[in-house]
Amino acid sequence: MNKMTNDSLGTKWTAKQFLVIAGIWFAFLISFITRLSWSTIMPSAIDSLHFTVQQGNTYLTAFYIGYAITVLPGGMLADKFGYRKLLMAAVLGNFIVMAAMIFMHGYWDGLALRFILGLVSGPDLSACLGIITEWFDGKKRATATGIFNTCTSFGLTVINIYAPTVLVHYGWRAAFGVTAMFPLAALIFCYFALKGNPPFPQQFGIKEANGNVATESVWSRLGGAISNRSVWMLAITGLFATGAKWGVTNWANLFMVKNLHFSLITAGTAMSIYGITSVISMVVAGWISDHSKWSRHTWAAIFMAIFTPTIIGFALVPKGNLGLLYFWTGAMGVGAFMFSTITNNLSVEVAPADQRGTVSGFINVFNQSGSFLAPILLGALLAGTGSYVTSFLVISVFPLIAVVALMFVRESDADKGAKKVVVNDEEADTVAKGEL
Where is the Major facilitator superfamily (MFS) profile domain positioned along the sequence (predicted)? Predict the structure, then answer.
């Protein structure tokens, strides 16, 4: 066992592990910056290009359609070609598309570019989670995942720091140009940060009892993934819990302004508190899971159960009570995001070692479905009942359904068929040459 492996199994992180987590954090951050850029730039761009608001909104939908299409295939390709390669490809794709959007002149070319941006972004999460499994052992992995997850909350902050100023002084094309610099910088940084031989390298093949190495096809990996009970339970968890998370996140400002009659500034302050508590809670959740003897799915269920009462508390905030608004919004940030560190970690830990990208991609399909459907459901509930409070109370049941699903998750499911020994690509080549 080399020095890196010995260090990795200790209690302290190595300098390389800090560099790796910084690399994937930056890579996934730029994915959020590029996908959110249109929301910030749209008011100026649609006036210049003479779009309607409805046409501008279809750009948002186009990204998520493209993203949903490649989430699963992206994970499957990451298993076949390597996590680092797919992540670098996704970052490069983000750079090319954002650079191309500087020169868009009509509705259809911009719509196509937003769709392509979604397509190239599909593999990013699976690749990042796979890289974490390569560089961090089981006693550090959840903490690493928690730190990695914080980039999702940070992306919205970054885009709102620079884009409005650039828009005002230099125009929307310049704002796209500045945005394109982020994936370019991430591409260069990740190239160096992710170089080297990880202590727990990705597995590409299966060494059978007779010593032969069998490399599974992507469809065989997919079949193995969907035959795993824990994978399906995590998919159900993602559909309901992630849906509830993004449903209440997208509707919180509207609720505070339209129903509770707080100002936009007050609502923005409350959501800033929401963002701060979400970031802290994700890191804390990972640390707790790594330093506890309890199973990860147990902690995920506990953290997820917190979500329901925080939604209810937020929905029942009395009008004009600023203290309770800030308290329950902050508490809801904990409930909405704390569990995601553990569920993201489980999505690769319940998978056989050569199926981690496929499994995380499969589960992410359900996550994205929930994220898309929950705001629609809230809108339908509001239209049917006329009550924001009733709408939130209904969706507060979703995390409880996810908790039940988590009770059927077993980390040991990844060990089924343990008589097969997975090997990495170098070992597979060696065996194929008859050297092992």
Answer: 15-414
CB atoms within 10 A of CB 64: 17
Q: What is the dihedral sign for C-alpha 214, 219, 220, 224?
A: positive
207 pairs with which residues across the strands?
A: 213, 421
Q: Are residues 89 and 237 in the same domain?
A: no
Number of Cβ within 10 Å of residue 380's Cβ equals: 11
Helix (H) or strand (E) holding 271: helix 264-290
Q: Are residues 75 and 164 in the same domain?
A: yes
**207 phi and psi, to 5 degrees?**
-90, 115
Cα 395 from Cα 88, distance rounded (Å): 37
User: What are residue 348's phi and psi, to 5 degrees?
Assistant: -100, -25
Q: Is the pTM of this model over 0.70?
A: yes
| Type of residue found at 233 | M
Strands in 421-424's sheet, in edge-to-edge order, are 213-214, 203-207, 421-424
Distance CA(327)–CA(270), nearest Å, equals 9
- Cα separation, 317 vs 42, whole angstroms: 33
Please check whether residue 79 is in contact with residue 354, taking contact to mean a CB–CB distance below 8 angstroms. Answer: yes
Tell me how crowded residue 106 is: count the other CB atoms within 10 A of its CB. 10
Same domain, yes or no, for 141 and 49? Answer: yes
Per-residue pLDDT of the chain (436 residues; tens, 9 = 90+): 444 444 445 568 899 999 999 999 999 999 888 987 887 788 788 888 888 877 887 887 788 889 889 988 988 888 888 899 999 999 999 999 999 999 988 899 999 999 999 999 988 988 999 999 999 987 888 889 989 988 877 776 787 678 878 888 898 899 999 999 999 999 999 999 999 889 888 776 666 666 665 666 666 767 777 778 899 999 999 999 988 998 888 788 888 888 898 887 888 788 888 888 988 999 999 889 888 888 889 999 999 999 999 999 999 999 889 999 999 999 999 999 999 889 988 888 888 777 888 888 889 889 888 877 887 788 888 888 888 899 999 999 999 999 999 999 987 655 454 444 455 545 544 433 434 3
Interacting residues of 12 by C-beta distance below 8 A, sequence separation 6+: none
Q: Is 117:98 a contact under the CB 8 Å cutoff?
A: yes
The number of CA neighbours under 13 Å toward the Cβ of 167 is 19
Residue 287: inside a domain: yes
Domain of 339 in residue numbering reads as 229-415
